[in-house]
Design goal:
The chain is α+β, with helices and mostly antiparallel strands and 446 residues long. The chain has helices spanning 10-18, 42-46, 55-58, 61-65, 74-89, 114-128, 141-156, 176-184, 196-204, 210-215, 218-224, 227-236, 267-287, 326-340, 360-363, 374-377, 384-401, 409-414; strands at residues 2-7, 27-31, 36-40, 68-71, 94-99, 102-106, 133-138, 168-170, 254-264, 290-301, 312-323, 347-359. The structure holds magnesium ion (MG). Magnesium ion binds at residues 6-7, 10, 101.
Length: 446
């Protein structure tokens, strides 16, 4: 059995942990130079704000409806994500991190009432990290994802599904006729891996609900759609056949991570892994014609190896300008490992997540080409080691003496005054990076 644990309105929820006055208010998080809404609180959704809607279209709601907008603070979100994932990892022997706010837990070999375990997990994440989550459980990842949709909808839209399925839903424990009832109430577009285009084609063919899909002629579907559809159908019928590698990509970030078959103890080993993950993530990024504004690199020991000393490393590096250049991303990922690695630990997993995704064509508009050609960002063959050491030294200095204590010369020249950085990422409403910067830690007076 699998569980899919998903943070509710994740970016907004992270903001609320450190700004409780945002609770109960309509809040949106802006990304891509404050241009588009990439996360919405339930209250903002109720005002009609759409996902990825341009900010200028909803800006009037600030005055008329009290809508609050904050700039995306990916450094905060990635760190909160790492904390949330670490709590979730305690509840199953295997965890696959799927996106910034979603992870699959493999319950193989776990005994007991899985719904009770799910509730305990939710309570622990809430208590220890302050984030609300929903848990979907099922015999395949596709069903766990669907169960998560039911858990979330039952909580948000009373009446959509029975109230007792809110927050934690196990479809694996249901009788087929009960499950069919939920399938009949669920649009095919909610199925993992069925995108907008495919669901439009299915609707045209008279297939509207998940139940319709399961009752449709498999041979016809196979002919009209790809092999992925066949796998999806088998997964919906309860036969696991999706590995994390052929899982459909999440939309808002690109994440490539893996648990190591055998513990990795050397820095070179971790670098090798994250370099490969960064390359694969960059490929996916270019595949969807996007660039990313920041890269998050993480690696950690296993909480299940109780006798091992534990270490979790995770850092988000904002990029000077959005890129999809593999060399740039690999170099950044490797430099990050240099700065974070500690000897003497049995590392069990690592990953790379590209965040602040923007469409490549839009990201380049109005941007001065100040950053030198790619060779400036990425090490030429043979210079890689020096460059990595330089980056590492920079990171260490900047961590100790404050951000931008040391910068790349070309960046310094171009940005001698903050306001002249016309190409810099615009984040006018960014909240403090409360978990990663000493000078931005919240102050409590009592
Ligand atoms: Mg979520």
């Amino acid at each position: 059995m699998y569980a899919l644990v998903d943070g509710n309105n994740f970016y907004v929820s992270c903001e609320r942990v450190f700004a409780p006055h945002l609770l109960g208010k309509p809040v949106v998080v802006l990304s891509s130079n404050d241009g588009a809404c990439v996360a919405r609180s339930e209250e903002a959704k109720a005002l009609g704000v759409q996902m990825a809607q341009p900010w200028f279209q909803v800006r009037h709601l600030e005055r008329s409806a009290g809508l609050i907008a904050v700039s995306a603070n990916f450094e905060l979100y990635a760190e909160m994500s790492a904390r949330m994932m670490a709590v979730e990892a305690r509840y199953a022997p295997r965890q696959e991190i799927y996106s910034i706010d979603e992870s699959f837990l493999d319950f193989e070999g776990v005994r007991g009432d899985l719904v009770a375990i799910g509730r305990e997990l939710r309570a622990a994440v809430w208590r220890e990290v302050g984030l609300p989550t929903c848990v979907g459980i099922g015999p395949t990842k596709t069903l766990a994802k669907l169960a998560n949709h039911i858990a979330k909808s039952a909580e948000r839209k009373p009446g959509s599904y029975p109230a007792h399925l809110a927050q934690v839903c196990n479809v694996g424990a249901m009788h087929q006729h009960e499950l069919d009832g939920h399938f009949a109430a669920t649009d095919v577009s909610e199925v993992w891996g069925i995108g907008r285009k495919t669901s439009a084609r299915l609707h045209d063919a008279g297939v509207h609900t998940v139940l319709d899909l399961l009752q449709a002629d498999a041979t016809t579907l196979r002919r009209q759609f790809s092999i992925v559809m066949e796998k999806t159908l088998r997964e919906l019928r309860g036969t696991p056949c999706l590995s994390i590698d052929d899982a459909p990509a999440a939309r808002q970030q690109i994440l490539v991570s893996r648990s190591f078959g055998k513990a990795v103890t050397t820095m070179d080993g971790i670098i090798e892994a994250v370099s490969e993950f960064a390359s694969r993530a960059a490929e996916k990024l270019r595949g969807q014609e996007s660039v990313c504004g920041a890269i998050h690199v993480f690696f950690s020991t296993s909480p299940f190896r109780r006798n091992d000393r534990q270490h979790q490393a995770g850092v988000t590096i904002p990029l000077v300008r959005p890129t999809a250049d593999t060399r740039m991303l690999v170099a950044t990922a490797a430099a990050t490992v240099h700065g974070q690695y500690r000897a003497g630990f049995n590392y069990a997993k690592a990953g790379v997540m590209l965040v602040d995704l923007q469409r490549a064509d839009e990201a380049c508009q109005g941007e001065l080409d100040l950053a030198a050609p790619a060779s400036d960002c990425a090490p030429a063959q043979g210079q890689g080691h020096d460059r990595a050491r330089l980056m590492n030294a920079m990171d260490v200095l900047n961590r100790r003496f404050g951000r931008d204590a040391v910068r790349i010369g070309s960046a310094r020249v171009a940005s001698s005054r903050e306001e002249t950085r016309s190409w810099a990422i615009r984040q006018e409403r960014r909240t403090p990076r409360s978990t990663t910067r000493w000078d931005e830690v919240p102050v409590v007076r009592c």
